[in-house]
Design goal:
Length: 261
């Protein structure tokens, strides 16, 4: 059952992924909680805290342009706005939520209506493919590029990394939160049972859509290891410090960061 994307062209892969997220958009937020026992919220909080968006000692605080790629229903973007505007008192931080899928963006837009007006004013939405970003995002214009649980779905990951490098300013940061490889064999066995056994079933029962959730589980299995992904980031031209990644929950997820020199 690893055949979901085998032998498909990049265009066909992109269309297949579009179909999956179109059908899961409405149930996406509830399903995330069910599938991860709510842990995805802790990972997302930690990811955003570790990036500390909006930090500035200047008066007025330094403006920052953040691009949240595959931003979907807004989980990362909303957290970054809150962190920058409320915790770091920096209203000059602007976040663009970009996603290839209009259905996911529509859910994000309606959720954003419950944000404070000042945060809504600092938020914009852009429908775009991460492997070929449009002129609305000029080269060297972005301070922070984030992608959470998105990159494994891209038809051409090296190309998306080169696009990230192109749109970032020198000194800008690439940050990725993604499912990764579990580094403990007991946990790995439990995790595989859960993901291959329960997740498609929950998808079927709760969202009425087994195939989309089967795809999501398989895409996690196919994604490169922490070390291999780190090298892909370096190959795209980023400088990676230290180990280059941080494992979360024993490697169920990992955070990778790189800087454009
Ligand atoms: N970042 C959000 C979060 O953490 O909740 C959403 C993650 S969701 C699992 C993955 C998103 O990737 C979907 O909204 C999907 O439409 C988007 N996506 C898939 N392929 C894409 C591409 N080539 N370019 C941009 N977004 C893409």
């Amino acid at each position: 059952h690893f055949g979901f994307q085998d032998g498909l062209s990049e265009t066909e892969k992109t269309e297949r992924v579009a179909g999956v997220f179109h059908s899961v958009a409405e149930s996406y937020d509830r399903m995330n909680d069910l599938m991860s026992f709510g842990v995805h919220r802790i990972w997302k909080d930690h990811f955003v805290t570790s990036l500390n968006p909006g930090l500035s000692s200047a008066t007025p605080p330094t403006p920052q342009r953040i691009l949240d790629i595959a931003g979907g229903t807004g989980d990362i973007a909303f957290r970054m706005l809150h962190h920058a505007h409320v915790l770091n008192h920096n209203p000059n931080v602007h976040v663009t939520i970009s996603d290839i899928n209009a259905s996911m963006l529509a859910v994000g837009k309606s959720r954003s209506q419950s944000l404070p007006a000042s945060q809504q004013a600092a938020l914009s939405f852009l429908k775009a493919d991460a492997t070929s970003l449009p002129p609305q995002i000029p080269s060297a214009s972005i301070d922070l590029y984030t992608v959470a649980f998105g990159i494994r779905n891209f038809a051409n990951i090296p190309l998306a990394l080169r696009e990230a490098h192109r749109v970032l300013k020198p000194g800008g940061v690439f940050a990725c939160l993604e499912f990764s490889k579990v580094n403990n064999f007991v946990l790995d066995a439990a995790y595989k049972r859960w993901s291959f056994g329960a997740i498609p079933l929950i998808g079927q029962l709760v969202a009425g859509d087994r195939d989309s959730y089967q795809y999501l589980v398989e895409s996690i299995e196919r994604f490169p290891s922490q070390e291999r992904f780190r090298r892909m980031i370096e190959d795209a031209g980023f400088v990676v410090g230290g180990r280059g990644y941080e494992d979360l929950t024993g490697g169920v997820a990992a955070i990778h960061k790189g800087m454009k020199p």
